[in-house]
Give the backbone structure.
Amino acid sequence: MSEILGPSLMQLVAQAPVLLVYLVGIVLAEVLRARAPLASTLALVGSGLLLVISMLQPFVFQYVLRSRLDAGSSSDEITRVLGFFGVIAGFAHAAGLGLLVAAVFAQRCPASQRPDSLRV
């Protein structure tokens, strides 16, 4: 277990600044929910997804690597399995980022309805 836990925790420490940004995004989305419910919900789900994936990915990778090594898998097989999980994690990250981008544009009023001070 320490073969998985140690390296995974080291990866999480290295990702700490990004994980902190995801946490701040979650808190801000919840605090500002009354102002823009749809945008807040999108930001909350997107930040939450990014946080969960970023925290789980090191453990999953370490577990898969250790279990494949213990099973005597070849390096090619290990590369394929880790690549498969990498693709899944990539799609999950893209989904989270897509939700954040959608949150930026959700519930925006048209430029013609904005106060003069906000027009570009």
Observations:
- The first helix runs from residue 2 to 14.
- Residues 2-106 form one domain.
